[in-house]
Amino acid sequence: MKAIAVTPGKPNSVHLAELPMPSVREIPNGRGVLVRMLRVGVDGTDKEINAAEYGAAPEGFNFLVIGHEGFGQVEAVGPNVTEVEPGDYVVATVRRPGSSIYDLIGTNDMTTDDTYFERGINLRHGFLTEYYVDDVEYIVKVPQGLKEVGVLLEPMTVVQKGIQQAYEIQRRLRVWRPKKAAVMGAGTIGLLAALVLRLRGLDVTVFGKTAKPYLNSELIEALGARYESTSELSVLTGAQKYGPFDLIFEATGFSPIVFESMQALGKNGVLVLSSVTGGERTVEVPADKINLEFVLGNKVMVGTVNANREYFESGVRDMAQAAAQYPGWLNRLLTHPVKGLENYRALFEQLTNAKGAIKVFCEVAAL
Ligand code: BGC
Ligand code: ZN
To answer: Which atom of ligand 1 is nearest to the CA of 54?
Structure first.
């Protein structure tokens, strides 16, 4: 069967690879699930893997099948699988356990191991292929009514984790009634963060680079949130106008914004950082001022990466709520479909150059 792969370490090496058809028997204890891929989203991570900035092949291979935002349908299950059955729509989590205590208790997303295993990213093949098998432990069911937007679940889980971690951290306050939130960045993650915060009833301001109106700002306004372009209003002025922010979710991919966000955060607030910034950018900041306000304001900043299955499950619930509360909204994020694994060049072309793209994804097979 076909798969889209890269040769790790070699820039722009994306190509079509050939893999044997997998079988549920590869998974121990009769717990295997064979999934037929329907749609796979791509993001900055795939771009950076193809640029050879990171990414490693599984042992015994000189290529890595990419794609970590999968959506598919169960084709067959092992004899000891009761959780899903053929025909069910499913998404698999990305990270597989290592050996730290966090991995052992099912929270692989919190691993302290230096080497981590992520399907489509590091040391494990991904989902840009026709079929995959995995342990049912890592497979999450998506209701039929969400099949059109199921490919958005993996990015949604990144947001779920960040926001739930923020609420968990804020239990330190005994009483925390967040009212105002800011989201930095209006890409897929920023849009989904705005959605989730609106579903929790917060007043949400999204800061983006592009001047409005454009699709992303319209989507934000359709949620009853506000969009501000940093070319017209600085984050700090925005915070004076619409803050103080109890929660800030950073998802721009541009690290200097972190230090502005630290200054825009209200007393007792929490700042969530989710951008994976592979570069080496440096920046000068008002360190005393930022530190002083953080100390005097009892503020928190937390990093978040990946997501374990509990966030996939809550992501499904929020997507269902979103479908009811903002019908058609999630579908509007699916801007750039590319049909067929064989069109991997077009997929990357869209990912790199498409104007106005929110989610670029491969239609591996018809829904
Ligand atoms: C993925 C996460 C992953 C992270 C770091 C992101 O693009 O969505 O699942 O943990 O990259 O590799
Ligand atoms: Zn990703």
So the answer is: 12
